[in-house]
Automatic annotation (TrEMBL):
InterPro entries: DUF2268. One of its GO terms (biological process) is proteolysis. It comes from Lentiprolixibacter aurantiacus. The lineage of its organism: Bacteria, Pseudomonadati, Bacteroidota, Flavobacteriia, Flavobacteriales. This is DUF2268 domain-containing putative Zn-dependent protease. Residues 148-290 form the DUF2268 domain. Keywords: Hydrolase, Protease. Pfam families: DUF2268. GO terms for molecular function: peptidase activity.
Length: 314
């Protein structure tokens, strides 16, 4: 959760958060296997803008949102609604609380060709890094002004309210979530989802997010948690020592999503600690293609950490 991350803590907020994910092995769609087949779906965004503009003359906000946005939802929006219990009431309240963010969406939709133009090249670049990748559709959605991006069996679910004026951040977010999708397909959906209910799972969670960040870095030469990475590299020795100690007690809040509501500390340092471990593993591997598969599969977090040798000099 967090790839919008480049500005406020809330923006970094829930972007990549997979706690609510539940991949199932049965009835998987027949996903495209080539970048050229990847689809960017902006239908829901167009429906929201239609509803937003209708509200200029219709004061029944809930009815307009329900009929023009919710009732016409794509499979991606329906999945998002189910996961986050999104309702017209929540949307209305968010629009009242942050009108400036929603006011960006008509212009964003009017210029959607810019996003559509960058998307094929982005998928081509992704395919160069992971030639065996699968390409579910990417859905551009409007939610209750929370920075949420997630992978799902329907495809990538990307809320645009926080990134409508930040196309570079949107690019990173799409790649980060598509990377999570490859993780789930590589290790199997049930195993992927099981990590979130597994006790003492701090290392696995950091490596999962760090793996998605590392793949993102190979595709776009950047990561979603750039400010956190800058902080970690400045305080690397101290933070490596703390990470080792916190692993013993499984104290996750400093490293993962508990950090989002704590303004006195860096956010999501576990993402970039996981990134650094994956980076060290990849750089030390003779076979880079196999190393990438190991990063995706990650079936033994402790063994992976040891083989990375990232803490050997700590």
């Amino acid at each position: 959760m967090k790839p919008f991350l480049s500005s406020s803590p809330r923006v970094l907020s829930l972007i990549g958060l997979f706690v609510f994910m539940c991949f199932k092995l049965s009835a998987q769609p027949n996903y495209p296997r080539t970048p050229q087949e990847a689809k960017l779906v902006s239908t829901d965004l167009a429906h929201f803008v239609e509803a937003y503009e209708a509200l200029a003359t219709n004061t029944d906000t809930l009815e307009v949102l329900q009929t023009l946005y919710f009732d016409r939802g794509t499979p991606g929006l329906k999945e998002f609604i189910n996961r986050h219990q999104l309702t017209p009431e929540l949307m209305r309240d968010a629009m009242r609380d942050a009108p400036e963010r929603y006011a960006l969406l008509p212009e964003f939709m009017a210029n959607i060709s810019q996003v559509e133009a960058l998307y094929p090249e982005l998928m081509q670049d992704f395919g160069k890094v992971l030639p065996a990748a699968m390409y579910p559709p990417t859905y551009l959605l409007v939610g209750a002004n929370r920075g949420i991006g997630q992978a799902s069996l329907q495809g990538q679910l990307i809320t645009v309210t926080r990134v409508a004026d930040k196309l570079p951040v949107l690019r990173k977010l799409i790649v980060h979530e598509l990377s999570h999708f490859q993780q789930a397909m590589t290790m199997g959906g049930q195993q992927y989802a099981a990590l979130y209910s597994t006790p003492d799972n701090m290392l696995g969670l950091c490596l999962r997010e760090g793996g998605a960040e590392f793949i993102t870095s190979l595709v776009v030469a950047d990561i979603t948690q750039k400010s956190a990475l800058e902080y970690l590299e400045k305080e690397e020795k101290q933070l490596k020592e703390r990470f080792v100690e916190d692993l013993k007690s499984q104290s996750k809040d400093y490293w993962l999503w508990g950090s989002l509501e704590q303004p006195d500390q860096p956010k999501l340092l576990g993402y970039v600690m996981g990134y650094k471990i994956c980076e060290a593993y990849y750089k030390g591997a003779g076979d880079k293609a196999t190393a990438l598969q190991d990063i995706l599969k990650m079936d033994n977090a402790r063994s992976f950490l040891e083989k990375s040798h990232y803490f050997d000099s700590n």
